[in-house]
Amino acid sequence: MAARTVAKDIITLRGSAAIVSEFFGYAANSILYNRGVYPEESFAKVKKYGLPMLLTQDEGVKSFIADLTAQLSQWLEAGKLQRIVLVIMSKATGEVLERWNFSIETDSEVVEKGVSREKSDKEIMREIQAIMRQIASSITYLPCLDETCVFDVLAYTDKDVAVPFTWVESDPKLIANPQMVKLHSFDTKIHKVDTLVSYKNDEWEEQ
Amino acid sequence: MMADDEIERLDPETEYLMSKRRAGNEWEMFKENVRPLKRGRNVNLLNTALNAHNHNRLKKSLLDNRRRLIEAIDEYKGDDPLLPWLECIKWVQESFPPGGDCSGLVVIYEQCVRTFWHSERYKDDLRYLKVWLEYADNCVDADVIYGFLDANGIGRTHSTFYISYALYMESKNKIKAANEIFDLGISRNAQPMAKLKDAYRKFLARSMRRPKVTEQDSTEKQLPVRSFGTVLANGENRVRSSLSELSTKNLKPEKTGEAAFTIYKDSTATDDDCPQQPDVSKRELHSLHPLGPRAERNKENNAIPGKWTAYQIPQQPGIRTVGASASACIPVFVDEDCDDRREVKTGGCKSSSLVNRREADQDMKRETELLRKKPLRNFPQNSLPR
């Protein structure tokens, strides 16, 4: 009995990469839904992390995110992903309105020596749940996006990573003088993910 | 996309993550008490404000601060007299996250727009227009405001004006009028045009999806008047007697303002439930055949819900029990901090007309209520469009 409990709490690099990339998929869906980037009707409810989560049913977006998470988990397993940013831009002007920044710290010992760490799924899930809750309530301070928006995903990887052919080099798409809010973090003991959202400072003169 | 050469340079986000600066979690704890703002909020201010509203002492300083900002409007000597107003409005929005009457925001909006409405200088000022639009958002009868802005040429160069106006009309189901406003904005080359056209496209897409009936503004008036009573059982009769007294105070007075609310009853139900009334069920059966247009059939699903504030249940003296018969008046409980607040305000006000106006919360609430219903009530009669 005791042996089984212990076995369950072991986390490997591979498992951790799967958790983090899956987290990013759900987080991206949740952001796209909550920020109204795609119409409400194009999402369907599922249960995940002990919360009702929404997943896009739009085939284009769905396959974009599926490809993305597959690529991310590859990089995460190699310990080469430093940051992933979901950028929301105005479709008309291309101006960057919001950035959801997920910064990743990888335990290099795990990558180099292939050792594993200990942390229960339950605990990780609780941490992720807190982040998802915060994403959903971010409407309290984020400006309303009242124009058609598009999104893009930036990956910050180690320099020795070859650019996959569906990806292109990009400028960092930063927001000048942004407002920033740090959300909760989660830690698989192998990958630690910090979440931050930055958005445009509000101005009366703003069109 | 890839941005793999940007790691070394510290962008503000990385710097922020690395620093140990952390904002509090009040924004999440009290999220139900925060009204989303179009322009977004500064989280630190939001946290402070939410904290303050939970502590009486801090709350007092919040009210003091508001008074100071209002005084600053009168004392302002610079060359942009709108500026202290904007600062005051912004501060109040951030510091009273739930909005509501207590913030005094509606009164401040009104005084601000009234101060400058005839000023040539601010006619095309986007900041000034935004105060107007935010005021309109807070009023029941925004029609008057948009008409006033249009007649006085305030904000006519900005696409925001046309977008807000048209969306408001759309929300009132005046689709044709909304369409005309979009057209007007485009013909006047309002800026930024891209934003206006984007909003127009979305509006058109919504119009396509909308069922036909709602496209005619007058549909509601054409609906046949319903008669009640034929199928109601005896016990339900009391509903009838009070129907005429009803008027709903609703955010959308156009729809519900005048009409008494109506209760629909499935006529098929009587078929099964009341077999002892064959004549009634027979009549119902016959009247079932012409089902009427879709709108008619679905109306209980389409009706806009409203508050039943004006609804009074008629008292039935016979039912009263002995215990309740004593006509002792119920003491109104006043919150301790509400009492304090009044003292602070009456003690502090001197110069500003605005402060004098709001000697007591009661006054402000009443004024807010009045303004919501009649946003231009303090404007000179001859300034209003006819």
Automatic annotation (TrEMBL), chain A:
Task: Keyword check for Nucleotide-binding, yes or no.
Answer: no
Instruction: List the GO terms this entry assigns under cellular component, sorted alphabetically.
Output: cytoplasm; kinetochore; nucleoplasm
Mind listing the UniProt keywords for this protein, alphabetically? Cell cycle, Cell division, Mitosis, Nucleus
Q: Does the keyword Protease apply?
A: no
What's an example Gene Ontology biological process for this entry? cell division
Q: Where in the cell is it found?
A: Nucleus
- Sequence ranges assigned to domain HORMA in this UniProt record: 14-197
The record's listing under Pfam families reads: HORMA (PF02301)
Its family? Belongs to the MAD2 family.
Instruction: Write out the function statement from the record.
Output: Required for the execution of the mitotic checkpoint which monitors the process of kinetochore-spindle attachment and delays the onset of anaphase when this process is not complete. It inhibits the activity of the anaphase promoting complex by sequestering CDC20 until all chromosomes are aligned at the metaphase plate.
PANTHER family referenced in this protein's UniProt entry, alphabetically: MITOTIC SPINDLE ASSEMBLY CHECKPOINT PROTEIN MAD2, MITOTIC SPINDLE ASSEMBLY CHECKPOINT PROTEIN MAD2A
Protein name per the record: Mitotic spindle checkpoint protein MAD2
Native organism: Acacia crassicarpa (northern wattle)
Task: Name the lineage.
Answer: Eukaryota, Viridiplantae, Streptophyta, Embryophyta, Tracheophyta
Automatic annotation (TrEMBL), chain B:
For this chain's UniProt record, which GO biological process terms are given?
A: meiotic sister chromatid cohesion, centromeric; mitotic spindle assembly checkpoint signaling
- Which GO cellular component term is one of those annotated? nucleus
Asked if the record carries the keyword Cell cycle, the reply is: yes
Coiled-coil boundaries:
none
> Which parts of this chain are annotated as the region Disordered?
267-300, 344-386
User: Composition bias, kind Basic and acidic residues: at what positions?
Assistant: 356-372
InterPro entries on file: Bub1/Mad3, Mad3/Bub1_I
Q: What Pfam family is a match for this entry? A: Mad3_BUB1_I
Residue intervals of the BUB1 N-terminal domain: 69-228
What does the record give under GO molecular function? Answer: protein kinase activity
Q: Quote the Gene3D superfamilies the UniProt record gives.
A: 1.25.40.430
**Looking at the record's lineage, which domain of life comes first?**
Eukaryota
Record keywords: Cell cycle, Centromere, Chromosome, Kinetochore, Nucleus
Check the record and name the PROSITE patterns matching this protein: BUB1_N
Its subcellular locations are: Chromosome, Centromere, Kinetochore; Nucleus
Q: What is its main location?
A: nucleus
What's the name of the protein? BUB1 N-terminal domain-containing protein
